[in-house]
Amino acid sequence: MKRTIYTQDHEDFRGAVRTWLERDVIPNGEQYIADKALPREFWLKAGENGFLGLALDEEYGGAGDFRYNAVLAEELAKVNAALPTCVGINSDITAPYINELGTPEQKERWLPGVASGEIVLAIGMTEPGGGSDLAALKTTAVRDGDEWVINGSKTFITNGYSCDIVIAAVRTAPELGPKGITLFAIEATKEGFSRGRKLDKVGMEESDTSELFFENVRVTDAEMIGELNKGFIHMMQKLPQERIACAIANTAHAKQILQETVQYAHERQAFGQSIGKFQHLKFLMAELVTQIEVCEAYMDKCIEAHDKGELTAVEAAKAKWWSSQAQSEVLDACVQIHGGYGFMNEYRVARAWRDARVTKIWAGSNEIMKELIGRELGF
């Protein structure tokens, strides 16, 4: 079915993104894998092209239209699953905390660098013993005169190894439980801030992921993002955008690999004919194509709703769990269609299959998403 949410301006923007990817990014893909990170040149080129400030105020290059963010995520996902993850964490997930909750001084201090690619952002929520339970975090900030002293650690932090600033959720009033959490923007140059090694993940090797450590890191109220002890509320308000961004990338990534698999089924010969002509594979691919197109239709409705400020947390949860589950099912089938070649890392389908698995875990596990949906039903 023809998609109707994008205008010609959006499609022109899509063309510009695709040109940049084909010229500057795709030729360097193997090097990103070897380095287990995106180089600074990637961020600077993205900033130079105006792709990193889409979620910011217009004075910092913002588009004022979430559909541009969606187009960027879709095109990045067609290359691999790691690109929309790293860029999304930086631009769609972390930057809005500064843009929407920051003071004028904080915005002027950091946002120009975010838009240019000179400042890479990460969000520090997850802790070694916490997982999806954000209210259970143990990293603390204790008031000492005019400063706060932060101690603790974070794990599984995307962009963690290369970030210049991490917005960390810390406990400022332990006695208040979830109501005693505050967000601080911690610059990587701060004394006492350190990073662990790049974590050895099953997939998404292009994405640098690491542990972060805070040992008597001193910050002031000038680094506080939002209100004191309102960090948990701030995170809950921002999570829907994180989840819809994940869902958009999930759908586009699966769709691209499926299209390549259909082409493979046309070209691969067995028993004197293309394998796609065998009834089982023909029926299977019919199911997969329908599954992705139905998923995409729901994503488009969510994108439209979010652009209008109407997307609810429950609707975003539905999009996140459904798209990540659909992606895993579709890519598993694509591996099977490729046969032995599907298990070879030199084939995109193998890497895509590995990369996709984590999407059922992060941004709130699919089980947590179902819990949120179930609560909405009154259970």
Element layout with pairings:
Layout: H1 8-25, H2 29-35, H3 40-48, H4 66-79, H5 82-101, H6 104-116, E1 121-124, E2 140-144, E3 147-158, E4 165-171, E5 181-187, E6 193-198, E7 209-220, E8 224-225, H7 231-267, E9 269-270, E10 273-274, H8 279-307, H9 313-338, H10 348-356, H11 366-376
Parallel strand pairs: 1-4
Antiparallel strand pairs: 2-3, 3-7, 4-5, 5-8, 6-7, 9-10
Helix pairs in contact: 1-4, 4-5, 4-7, 5-6, 5-7, 7-8, 7-9, 7-10, 8-9, 9-10, 9-11
Structure, explained:
- It is built from eleven helices and ten strands.
- It has 379 residues and is α+β, with helices and mostly antiparallel strands.
- The strands form three sheets. Strands 1-4-5-8 form a four-stranded mixed beta sheet, with helices on one face. A four-stranded antiparallel beta sheet has the order 2-3-7-6, with helices on one face. A two-stranded antiparallel ribbon has the order 9-10.
- Helix 4 (66-79) runs antiparallel to helix 5.
- The protein starts with 7 loop residues before the first helix and ends with a helix.
- The model has no long low-confidence stretch (mean pLDDT 96).
Short structural summary:
This protein is α+β, with helices and mostly antiparallel strands and 379 residues long.
Class by helix and strand content? alpha+beta
Count of discrete alpha- or pi-helical segments spanning 4 or more residues: 11
H/E element sequence: HHHHHHEEEEEEEEHEEHHHH
Low-confidence stretches: none
Separation of the first and last Cα atoms: 36 Å
Strand order of the largest sheet: 1-4-5-8
What is the average of the pLDDT values? 96
What is the alpha-carbon Rg in Å?
21 Å
Q: Sheet with the most strands?
A: 4 strands, mixed
